[in-house]
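queue> pop job 88
queue> type: inverse folding (structure -> sequence)
queue> payload:
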């Protein structure tokens, strides 16, 4: 029997490789389906989704507002939580008001981090410099930018790089809304059909459970994609970004996602929401 091949995009970050290890290494059965992985930085995955290329992919929640005609959001595999949002940092102590007019490194036009920064203070976009997230701290230290918007494991390593937190945008979001911060999620093409979408969502949940029960099996895959992160930082990254919302975002998570997208739409950053955000699974 010929299997149907489906492309699936994930980032090389430890939370994604932890979540999808079981699914990509046949530890979880997705009957009749062969997965073809695309492992790229999340901003590249955002761009691919805008072009409608992957069948299933991790994306920033920011870009979800632009792709709902073709994609819907699965309930599993997401990165949401508290105390895990992006940080604005600089090589000197500053107050947020001093960032206006500064050159700020941002890890991508369609990242949720950038959306949060625009919601916090649109004026900070005046001299934005888009660049891969892993270059931002070095560019600050070289003096090529004045401040940076850091994501992922940057929140664990910025102090060791001699940088100072100016504002925690995740904390700002939590204080403004009382909700967990939605960072990234898994979208799938609506054309795959509800039955297959339900099977994929269930398989992602099973893959998370497998990695939790057999963490040593996933280690090599995580390490090989982790951009030279130490094992300690990898572990802290997974503990922070893989949580109960990753298994199922539930009502609280869905409300947070919808609130983020509606706020972006109200500010004219995102299109008006016309399609259902979530897959019917």
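queue> result:
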């Amino acid at each position: 029997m010929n299997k149907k091949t489906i492309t699936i995009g994930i980032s090389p970050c430890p939370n994604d490789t932890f979540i999808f290890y079981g699914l990509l290494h046949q530890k979880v059965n997705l009957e009749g389906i062969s997965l073809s992985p695309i492992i790229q930085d999340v901003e590249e995955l955002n761009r691919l989704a805008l072009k409608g290329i992957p069948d299933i992919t991790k994306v920033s929640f920011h870009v979800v507002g632009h792709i709902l005609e073709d994609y819907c959001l699965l309930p599993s595999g997401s990165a949401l939580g508290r105390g895990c949002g992006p940080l604005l940092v600089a090589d000197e102590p500053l107050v947020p008001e001093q960032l206006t007019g500064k050159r700020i490194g941002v890890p991508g036009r369609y990242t949720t981090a950038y959306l949060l920064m625009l919601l916090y203070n649109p004026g900070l976009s005046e001299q934005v410099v888009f660049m891969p997230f892993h270059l931002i701290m070095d560019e600050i230290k070289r003096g090529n930018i004045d401040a940076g918007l850091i994501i992922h494991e940057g929140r664990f390593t910025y102090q060791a790089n001699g940088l100072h937190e100016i504002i925690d945008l995740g904390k700002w979001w939590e204080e403004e809304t009382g909700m967990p911060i939605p960072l990234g999620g898994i979208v799938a093409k609506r054309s795959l059909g509800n039955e297959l979408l339900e099977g994929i969502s269930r398989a992602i949940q099973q893959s998370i459970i497998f990695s939790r029960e057999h963490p040593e099996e996933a280690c090599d895959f995580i390490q090989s994609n982790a951009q030279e992160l130490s094992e300690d930082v990898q572990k802290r990254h997974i503990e922070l970004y893989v949580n109960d919302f990753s298994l199922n975002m539930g009502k609280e998570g869905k409300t947070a996602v919808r609130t983020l997208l509606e706020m972006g739409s109200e500010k004219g950053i995102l299109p008006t929401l016309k399609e259902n955000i979530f897959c019917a699974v």
